[in-house]
Design a protein that fits this description.
The complex is a heterodimer.
Chain A: E1 5-7, H1 12-22, E2 26-29, H2 35-40, E3 51-54, E4 64-67, E5 70-74, H3 79-83, H4 86-91, H5 93-100, H6 105-110, H7 113-119, H8 127-132, E6 136-141, E7 144-149, H9 150-153, E8 154-156, E9 159-160, E10 167-174, E11 180-187, E12 198-206, E13 212-220, H10 230-236, H11 243-261, H12 267-286
Parallel strand pairs in A: 1-3, 2-3
Antiparallel strand pairs in A: 4-5, 5-10, 6-7, 6-10, 8-9, 11-12, 12-13
Helix pairs in contact in A: 10-11, 11-12
Chain B: E1 4-10, E2 13-19, H1 25-32, E3 51-54, E4 57-60, E5 73-75, H2 89-96, H3 106-119, H4 125-131, H5 142-157
Parallel strand pairs in B: 1-5
Antiparallel strand pairs in B: 1-2, 3-4, 3-5
Helix pairs in contact in B: 2-5
Classes of the chains: A alpha+beta, B alpha+beta.
Chain lengths: 292, 158
């Protein structure tokens, strides 16, 4: 176990002062579900941590609000709070679905959305739908706030551009249009408590003629950074969704994954699996029958 | 690193101790307070053997710093029994249905089942499975556990 001091700031201001004071030697602690594992394993990247700042109960960071077609979620909202929020269930159901598959009831009771984003695991469950919704993060420091696209915030596996004096305040995205189709599919080693082996978020908006006007495909655990695969999305744009087309789009995602990661020990498994999951996600999002 | 003094209510009794700031709640419950019914299975939040109820929420005590528990209200397996010291219907049903094999997951399983029945007195199979989905039984005796929860639900209604 890594050793550190413990401080529970009473307000966001105090938290910012402490971040400035410790200059990179303070570690923000939200739900702790990733950090406690790393502390226990004496993770080298935490060896300089002198103090843990427990922000899990800062009420300013727990607010979930819906206004003017934008949903904003405080970084310390737990997964349990997210999956129980009526606004999110109504306006971002595939994101709620992804949060429902995180860990276990125990983990969802403590784990937070901001913690998950800050950890920047390539196997994140909320990551793909959040990227598919072009989500924006608000980062806060004593210098003020700045907004960053989630897809620009994460720059590598477990790497982000957050500065040592900043914290993730909230994440926001537009409510989904009623005419949009979307889905989240996940393959884990088992149903509960499984870190995603692979997952996919898909979003498809179709026009009156039935052709796709806006397509977003985000595979998870496929690439070091969770990103939209635009080459695959473009194959569907302007076309009428169909089983055959979705099959081809799935293969394209697979190709792009290998282009990005190279052939790895897991590739023979991941190549057909991600193609199949993408096909399934697109079928679900567009109401195309699964058996062709 | 200075030690921190913490006070919490465990199984309806107020207790106080000095802890290292990096101590896990799991270890403090076991070593400082003697609640050794709280088990460490994996230590990484996967198995649920260390499950407790903290301020009404079911959590893994291996994922929580003891310092976070300052002022909180905690229930461990030792506090599940009835006030007169007899077994709670969930505990009785686990014995009756043979829902205990090696016994290591049992405290966590009982806590999760107890927590479920307090919120939902008539759970379906699916709701029971969901409620114990954060508790792994390596003996794989899930079927007996599910029947035990049904039995406890029936007995609690009487």
């Amino acid at each position: 176990m890594i050793r550190f001091d413990y401080i529970k700031p009473a307000s966001l201001e105090e938290c910012q002062e402490l971040l400035n004071h410790y200059q990179g030697k303070a570690r923000l602690f939200a739900g702790g579900t990733d950090l406690m594992v790393e502390f226990r394993a004496d993770d080298k990247k935490l060896k300089d941590v002198e103090v843990v700042l427990d922000i899990s109960n800062l009420s300013e960071l727990k607010i979930i609000k819906l206004d003017e077609e934008v949903i904003s979620i405080g970084s310390c909202a737990t997964f349990t709070e997210i999956i129980g929020n009526q606004g999110l269930i109504k306006y971002a159901p595939f994101f709620v679905e992804a949060c429902r598959t995180v860990g276990s009831p125990q983990i969802r009771n403590t784990g937070t959305i901001g913690g998950s984003i800050g950890t920047a695991s390539p196997a994140s469950d909320p990551g793909p739908p959040l990227v598919a919704m072009n989500s924006i993060l608000t980062l806060l420091s004593s210098a003020g706030e700045r907004e960053v696209l989630l897809s620009d915030f994460i720059v590598g596996a477990y790497k982000t551009i957050i500065k040592s004096n900043e914290l993730i305040k909230s994440i926001k995205f537009k409510t989904l249009k009623p005419e949009a189709g979307f889905s989240f599919v996940k393959l884990g080693r088992r149903k509960a408590l499984a870190i995603a082996r692979m997952n996919v978020a898909a979003y498809v908006e179709t026009g009156e003629d039935g052709t796709a006007k806006d397509v977003r495909i985000v595979p998870g655990s496929a690439t070091p950074i969770t990103i939209r695969i635009t080459e695959a999305e473009n194959m569907l744009l302007g076309k009428t969704p169909s089983y055959e087309l979705h099959e081809a789009v799935g293969k394209k995602v697979s190709e792009k994954m290998i282009e990005i990661t190279g052939t790895r020990w897991s590739t023979p498994y991941k190549e057909p699996v991600i193609a199949s999951l993408v096909k399934r996600a697109l079928n679900q999002a567009t109401g195309v029958k699964e058996n062709g | 690193m200075d030690k921190i003094k913490v006070t919490m209510t465990v199984n309806k009794k107020t207790v106080e101790t000095e802890i290292e700031p990096y101590a896990r709640l799991l270890d403090v419950l076991r070593d400082n307070f003697g609640f050794t019914g709280v088990k460490e299975g994996c230590g990484i939040g996967e198995c649920g053997a260390c499950t407790i109820i903290m301020n009404g929420k079911k959590v893994n005590s291996c994922m929580i710093l003891a310092a976070q528990a300052q002022g909180s209200e905690i229930l461990t397996i030792e506090g599940v029994e009835n006030a007169d010291g007899t077994m709670h219907p969930v505990q009785e049903a686990f014995l009756e249905k043979g829902a205990v094999q090696c016994g290591f997951c049992t405290p966590g399983m009982v806590i999760s089942s107890y927590h479920l029945l307090n919120k939902n007195p008539e759970p379906t199979d699916l709701e029971i499975k969901e409620a114990i989905s954060g508790n792994l039984c390596r003996c794989t005796g899930y079927k007996q556990i599910i029947s035990a929860v049904h039995m406890a639900a029936d007995n609690m209604k009487k």
